[in-house]
Specification:
This protein is an alpha/beta fold. The chain is built from seven helices and 15 strands. A five-stranded parallel β-sheet has the order 2-1-3-4-5, sandwiched between helices. It has a five-stranded antiparallel β-sheet with strand order 10-9-8-12-11. A three-stranded antiparallel β-sheet has the order 13-14-15, with no helix packed on it.
């Protein structure tokens, strides 16, 4: 199964638009063109991102080399772009703790990029299947997690069969999850997108199988800005 949904992160809007159009003509779906990490995380949570293409030189404190090692990108292939070819850049990319990070030096032919994407599609990154429970021999299937709730110093994981309690932070737990499979609808709730039945922007609620959860104003604004209607996210 090939890669279709691509997130672009570039430092040049004009170049990004050109790349967007060229990839779209080849049949790829460009889910967004951004230069901000936080906006990228929001968009990844709303979509099924399969590949990130980003400039090494981005606006802000974090460049593409640093972002490629962020937990949010660990389950996605990343193609880094640079205007300057050097042994220093090669060494830095080689040192990135990410199994599928490649880089291209501009200018390159769009068919070169297309070939690299097709190669990456043949060797998909294996997403984590389980997270460890409270005991050493206990494991929870990620695909069975319906939602995760934060309450004080505890995390509650509701699966299709039972509810688990952990004394750890949501930040720690998210490091073990494929972030593009979950949607943070509230600071206290993280939802597995496949279980969402309806998002009601008027009532500020999210309905999943057998549960009704609150939708925060921030996420409501994000959903409205993406023209998301009242239906499940796929």
């Amino acid at each position: 199964m090939g890669i279709q949904n691509i997130l672009l992160m570039t430092n040049n809007p004009g170049y990004g638009l050109q790349l967007d159009q060229s990839l779209s003509l080849l049949g790829y779906n460009i889910i967004g063109h951004l230069n901000c990490y936080q906006k990228a995380l929001d968009l990844m949570s709303l979509t099924d991102t399969e590949l990130v293409i980003m400039d090494i030189a981005l606006e802000g404190a974090q460049n593409g080399l640093k972002l490629a090692e962020e937990p949010a990108f660990q389950n996605l292939p990343v193609i880094l772009l640079t205007d300057h070819d050097s042994s220093e850049i090669y060494q830095k990319v080689s040192a990135i703790n990410h199994p599928f990070t490649l880089y291209l030096v501009k200018p390159f032919h769009i068919h070169t990029l297309d070939s690299i994407i097709k190669i990456l599609a043949q060797h998909p990154i294996q997403e984590p299947k389980f997270i460890q429970g409270n005991s050493r021999g206990e494991f929870i299937a990620i695909k069975e997690i319906m939602y995760i709730e934060v309450e004080h110093n505890y995390i509650f994981i509701q699966t299709t069969t039972r509810r688990y309690a952990f004394k750890k932070s949501l930040t720690q737990l998210k490091l073990q999850l494929p972030i593009n499979r979950f949607l943070q609808i509230h600071r206290s709730f993280l939802v597995n997108k496949k279980f969402i039945k309806k998002i009601d922007l008027e009532k500020n609620i999210v309905e999943i199988e057998g549960y009704t959860l609150p939708l925060s104003r921030r996420m409501k604004h994000t959903l409205l800005s993406k023209n998301t209607s009242q239906h499940p996210l796929n």
